[in-house]
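Entry type: protein chain
Record version: 2
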Amino acid sequence: VLAYFAIMGLDHNDAWDLFRLLDADRSAFIDLEEFVLGFMRLRGTAKSIDIAKLSHENKQMRANLEYFTGRLEKFVAHLEASSFFSEQGEELAT
């Protein structure tokens, strides 16, 4: 396996990442179809446009996550400021 990875230009530390890329249905098992289709997707070198697209998508996802996290923090602060938590605590105590 290590020799095969060396031929592909992969380090042995990339094994888990490769497995996750090939395991399309997240079953923790790679069947023949997943293996073949996965390697067909991975063959060749990435184009600059592919990498730029992934970078852009990653930035968008991070921005969305930061926005959602900020909204959630404001919502929790609002709940803490209201009597919601104290009323819930009184109900649990009785």
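Comment: The longest helix spans residues 48-81.
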